[in-house]
Structures are given as C-alpha cells and as structure tokens.
Design a protein that fits this description.
single chain, 291 residues, mainly alpha, three-stranded antiparallel β-sheet, 9 helices, 3 strands, 79% helix, 4% strand
C-alpha cells in the first residue's frame, strides 16, 4: 500500500470537514511542484540580475571599444603621421636645397603652400573621423533613428567618399611629383659625371640646366661639395615621398570605412522599413479580426 503524503492527507481532511473559503481553495489547489518551479525561476532571475550588475572590467572595456570607430581612427592616425613626416621632410629639404644651390629664392613658395595643405588636411581628416564615429553601427542607431535622418546620413557619406576619392588621386599625383627630386638626387650614386675639360684634363662636372633647373655648373671641389650635400639631401625627400604615400593610403582607408558605414546605414533603413510594413500588416490583421 502506498502511503499518502502530508499534503494529500491535509487536503482530504479539509474536504471531509468544513467548507473551504476561496483563499483556502486556491492554496489547497496549488501544486507544490509549481511553487518549487516558481522559486527556482526567482532564484535564477536574482542571480542573473546580480551578474548583470557586477560586470567585469573586460566586459565594460569591450563595450566601450565597440563604440570606437577603429577603421576611421586608424586612418586618422596614419594621416597625422604622414602630415608630420611631410612637413619635416619638405621644410628641411627646401632649406638644404637653397644652401646647396646658393639660391635663397629657390622654392620660396614651399613654406606657405605646406602650411595651407597641412592645416586643410588636418581639418578634413578630423571631419572624416567625426562622421565615421556617428555613422558607425552602434552610434548610428541613436543619431540617425528616423528615415529622413538616415537618408541624410547616406548622402553625407556618399559626398565624403567622392571627396576622399578626389583627394586620394591628388595625393598620388603629389607623390609622383615628390619622386622627381628623389630620382634626380639618386643619380649622384649611379652616374659617372666625369667629363673632359678644354685643356684635356678629366674632371667631374654637372650642369643643372640639363635637369630642368637654372644654368649653374659645379666642377672640381664644388662638385664634391654638391655631391656630398645631395646625398644628405635625398633622405629628406625620401621621407617626404613616403609621407605623401601614407597620406594617400589613409584616404583610401577612409574610403573603406565610409563604404562600410554606408552599407550599415542602408541595411538599417531597410530593416526599419520592413519592421514598419510588418507593424502595418499586424495592425490590419487585428482590425480585420475585430470587425
């Protein structure tokens, strides 16, 4: 014979005795298994809430890192490195070129042009970084939450992409221009400038008119000084050339980041339109059911 549990015996006594009230009937009809399940759910909920409150430092760091536009930030850092190298290389190179040619008016415009270019590129790079930050996936959902704002954000990113494309092509042309003095100065390492003088002696001479400069000739001891200063000068122009290439690479990196942000903005707009269509369909279905 199976023994009755305490709960079943208590229920039998209540049913055989007086009439039960509504509260007593509810309590008596409750299953202890359901109470245990509810208790377990409460314990799990409390443990989950405690775990969410006590987040680890690594989780918070990853959450903050997800808000950082890493692609645009890396491109901005490369841009700053390129601008710094270009400024130092061209300033030192222009000054040493004037000393080597003994001409204070040579490349007189380089300082003014360099100031305008560097300041403009710094402002443009910072603007691209800001737009990249607000167009990144976690941030764009808060800034461009409506359909009109999303369309404006897409137009802004498309404009900046075209602008970066034009700037990138311009800096590639600038890199080609900066490669010219590097090539001319590298001739001092590979070309033999020995010529036969009028008196029959062999001597090293160079005439700058053959290289697109003013008519100026260096021979003998002057050529040795010119060669020594030219070999030192090539380092500055190589630094300027590499910096120009870095700036072009940073603009290409900006275009990649803008393309990714533009794709995210389009996907979020399509998802919003689909959700709106689903809501309209559900509301229409509810209205038809009510009628």
């Amino acid at each position: 014979m199976e023994q009755e549990g305490p709960w079943e015996s208590m229920r039998a006594e209540q049913e055989n005795g007086e009439l039960l009230s509504e509260d007593e009937r509810t309590e008596a009809s409750k299953d202890p298994r359901e109470e245990e399940q509810q208790g377990n759910v409460k314990e799990v909920w409390i443990s989950m809430s405690d775990g969410s409150r006590s987040e680890k430092c690594s989780d918070r760091f990853l959450h903050c890192l997800s808000q950082v536009p890493c692609g645009s930030l890396i491109a901005w850092i490369i841009l700053l490195v390129g601008l710094g190298g270009l400024t130092g290389g061209l300033l030192i190179g222009a000054q040493k070129t004037r000393d080597m040619l003994a001409n204070d008016e040579f490349l007189w415009f380089i300082e003014y042009t360099l100031i305008g270019v560097v300041v403009s590129m710094f402002v443009i790079g910072t603007l691209l970084l800001c737009v990249g930050h607000i167009s990144t996936e976690p941030t764009s959902r808060h800034v461009f939450q409506s359909t009109k704002k999303n369309i404006c954000a897409q137009g802004l990113n498309i404009f900046l992409m075209i602008f970066c494309y034009i700037l990138g092509f311009s800096w590639m042309v600038a890199s080609v221009v900066l490669a010219v003095p590097v090539y001319l100065l590298s001739l001092l390492y590979f070309v033999d400038f020995t010529v036969k003088q009028a008196d029959g002696k062999l001597d090293k001479c160079i005439n700058l008119v053959h290289y697109g400069l003013e008519k100026q000739e260096f021979c003998g001891a002057d050529f040795q000084n010119f060669e020594r200063e030219g070999k030192q000068l090539i380092v500055s122009y190589i630094a300027a050339l590499v910096s120009s290439i870095l700036i072009a690479i940073s603009l290409i990196h900006f275009m990649i980041a803008i393309s990714a942000n533009l794709a995210h903005l389009r996907n979020s707009r399509i998802a919003t339109l689909n959700a709106y269509d689903d809501d309209m369909a559900n509301s229409k279905l509810v209205a038809d059911t009510t009628m």
